[in-house]
């Protein structure tokens, strides 16, 4: 792997992890174009850690607030966030346990990833029919957003796009749906890292420079992506990402069919 490969994959991971355009789909397609079906498990884990660090730093005030609520009985609403995140994480855990082999095969199929980008596009367009966003996240919305996250394990289905769209369709305030989606990424990414932790121990020291470079690019681009999504949601332009997904899916099918 060259530094150019590390830059391209790191940039794609950082931007697409939080932009509603599917990081997994882009990594599968780009990895195939670069000559490898996957960028390598160790490198993939490091890229996810870059995204994780970005969301932890971006939402550090909210995260600290939630942690403090554990020791403050009067902060029930903040404490409930922990429960909602736990509930929202369960569907993805169940999906991985039941369909592990299917997901592993899916990550070697750029045609499937390209097709699923079209699905993501239609999911994003569905927010045109969203309810007026006035409610907060509830047990019901956290369950359904969690199911959306489980569905998004399939490469090409955007995790942020599916979870945010689900929240908006349920009437959750768009900005709150986005914040919950990003916080929901924390246990999801941690779970993925823990699940593949043994592979991380097989770090190739000869590629340390490329690893660190890719990690850094992912971290910085992830920060930008979170800011961009929150800004566009406030402006009511979230569905615009659908057209990019359609274009990316079409390019993928053209290249691999």
The tally of structural domains comes to: 1
Tell me the major beta sheet. Answer: none
Listing every helix as H and every strand as E from the N terminus to the C terminus, the arrangement reads: HHHHHHHHHHHH
| Beta strand count | 0
Low-confidence stretches: none
Distance between the termini: 26 Å
Structural class: mainly alpha
Assembly type of the chains comes to: single chain
Mean pLDDT level? 89
* Rg over C-alpha atoms, rounded to the nearest angstrom: 18 Å
C-alpha geometry: globular
Give helix % range: over 70%
Number of helices: 12
Structure description:
The protein has 257 residues and is mostly helical. It has one domain. 76% of the residues lie in helices and 0% in strands. It has helices at 3-18, 23-33, 41-58, 60-69, 76-106, 110-125, 139-151, 159-169, 174-195, 197-200, 208-234, 241-256. The longest helix has 31 residues, at 76-106. It is globular, with a radius of gyration of 18 Å. It starts with a helix and ends with a helix.
Task: Summarize the structure in short.
The chain is mostly helical.
Strand and helix layout:
Elements: H1 3-18, H2 23-33, H3 41-58, H4 60-69, H5 76-106, H6 110-125, H7 139-151, H8 159-169, H9 174-195, H10 197-200, H11 208-234, H12 241-256
Helix pairs in contact: 1-2, 1-3, 1-11, 2-6, 3-9, 3-11, 4-5, 5-7, 5-9, 6-12, 7-8, 8-9, 9-11
